[in-house]
């Protein structure tokens, strides 16, 4: 594996010097990792040193870490100022010099609001890059955001996804991955298909189809040589997973009807109760990760202590107060503000990008297996004014989705404000629902949720306007599915 060693060395030197990462080096590392898996069945001992893995490589000297961070921030800002209309203007107006920025001085760079990127995406595209693919965010919270990617960025992202599929997800050639994300989300789809098949696994695109059809396809025998008998891995958004759980519970599917070994969820808040119900319904562990189109390949993975641990290699993480943009204190809630670094991103360049995602900082120093990388809570929800900090999506879903009398995905709305009182409006299966309201009120009080009333509905049409979820992006198919009857026994 001399070639890999050389590629890794070159990669390591490029990171330290903030030189351009050669996609072919990352591709070579990914290819050799796959070859190692094919030959020995397991990754080599040095896999913790591979790009994007939070192994020993992350435990470097704090002084060296600061130097690398300063160098990366300066290099990213320098290129953004030189080559994008937006940052050229911002730095000129404030008289900022990218070459004088350090971690403290970086706080003088204004936070980039999401609406700036949404309203003028090309003002963030580097004049030195060749745009190749426009990735659109799902935009359930409004108009989608366009993020241009260069071919080199795609190659880098795919190579890193391949390493992550092999090491993080544990994907092997006998596996088959079904992707039940929106078919129009080109970038995640491309990444999932490329990384799975480069590992040697097979790939099936479901899209967000009728959940009854998706369950039939998950349970159907594949009959492929060298492959597990049925689909082993599923990737979906939390709300689409909720529709699958709802349908599986309703139609009497059993976990043994499926061959799933792992379910990956991203893009939306996954509540504790939904996670538990999905694991019971499908008999497979559910895991989450944090990735977003704007800041790839930066991301975060959960640890066993329940934190979300963020990569440092590909970008700079800040957690800031969503109103003052001052750093969030330990134990408090703030917004993820991220700067993706230039060697990995060269087309759409962002400095201090306000992601809108709320997290809590741990009150104490984490003591877990990933303690050497920055930790936050899991994403609590999206910033939507001060109420979203006191009543975040996660707290509401933890309350609601634990109740089997609430159809999934949960449909709810909040009205009022903290001064006049906040009311939670919620759709349930049927009314009256004896005991449900009292139970919800008790649990809301125990969780410290500032709600003045909970109102139940048995008709969704009566619910005040609710936020759409990704499962609402239903893709139609010509397949006809029998919708009546209770399923028993194994799937067809
Ligand atoms: Zn942790």
Describe the structure.
α8 packs across α9 and α9 (238-250) packs across α10. The strands form 5 sheets. A 5-stranded parallel beta sheet has the order 4-3-5-6-7. It has helices at 2-17, 23-40, 62-83, 85-94, 114-119, 151-167, 186-199, 211-219, 238-250, 272-282, 387-390, 393-400, 436-446, and strands at 131-136, 146-150, 176-179, 202-205, 233-236, 262-265, 286-288, 290-291, 299-302, 308-310, 315-320, 333-340, 353-360, 375-376, 381-382, 412-417, 421-427, 453-457. The chain folds into 3 domains: 12-153 and 291-379, Rossmann fold (3-Layer(aba) Sandwich); 169-288, Rossmann fold; 392-465, GMP Synthetase, Chain A, domain 3 (2-Layer Sandwich). α10 (272-282) links the parallel β6 (262-265) and β7. The protein starts with a helix and ends in a 35-residue tail after the last strand. The protein has 13 helices and 18 strands. The longest helix is centred in the first third of the chain and has 22 residues, at 62-83. It has 492 residues and is an alpha/beta fold. It binds zinc ion. The site of zinc ion has 8 residues, from loops.
